[in-house]
Amino acid sequence: MHIKSANFVISNTDVAKCPNEPLPEYAFIGRSNVGKSSLINMLTERKSLAKTSGRPGKTQLINHFKINGNWFLVDLPGYGYARVSKKSKKTFQKYITDYFVKREQLVCAFVLVDIRHEPQKIDLQFMEWLGENGIPFCIIFTKADKLRPKALERHVETYIKELLSGVWEEAPHYFVTSSSKNVGRDEVLDYIDGVNDTFFENRS
Fold it and tell me: Is 49 within 8 Å of 7 (Cβ atoms)?
């Protein structure tokens, strides 16, 4: 997929105010400081489409970007960041939940995971929640450049084994990426392209 255009549309905390167009949406979400903004900028080849910050937890709104005029990339707040207030965390966790449960245009969620770390309980619980609610999702492992090839392969295998030892009968589709090295971009965009084709075929 060639990204011809990537335009910011709206930020809000109310799912009812999200764009009303019948276009497929892909939500990007993960723990704070997982490299979400850098990944979005890498995928779209826009240096500052999503705002990167040295302070985790900066994204606290539902952010819609229209890509190529025919699908939406949705940047959601990170979860599990302790330095935001309990009140703020409770507020934006509620509209994240509302978004996933109510948003009919959502066709896939991309759950971002920092591949340098062992499987985190909060990520595993969130994926389980997505599964229980019938929400399609894929895993995007980020920061692959921070590990040597053999260590990277070992970490991915460990993560998949952890998933299969729990509630999953088969592992979700996953991608290995590095925003700084431009790794995984084509694979993620090709996947989106394929889902888009199916989406529009079913609507015709």
Answer: no
How many whole angstroms from its chain centre is CA 142?
A: 11
Assess if CATH 3.90.230.10 describes domain 6-199.
Answer: no
Cα–Cα dist 18/10, whole Å: 7
Structure tokens belonging to residue 165: 């030892």
Q: What is the CA radius of gyration of the chain?
A: 16
Please state, in angstroms and as integers, the Cα–Cα distance from residue 37 to each residue in 47, 149, 164, following that order.
10, 24, 29
Q: What is the pTM for the complete model shown?
A: 0.91
Instruction: Give the start-to-end residue ranges of the domains of the chain.
Output: 6-199
pLDDT average per 10 residues of sequence, the chain (204 residues): 95 92 96 92 91 52 94 87 52 79 96 95 91 95 97 96 91 96 98 96 84
- Per DSSP, what are the bridge partners of residue 176? 141
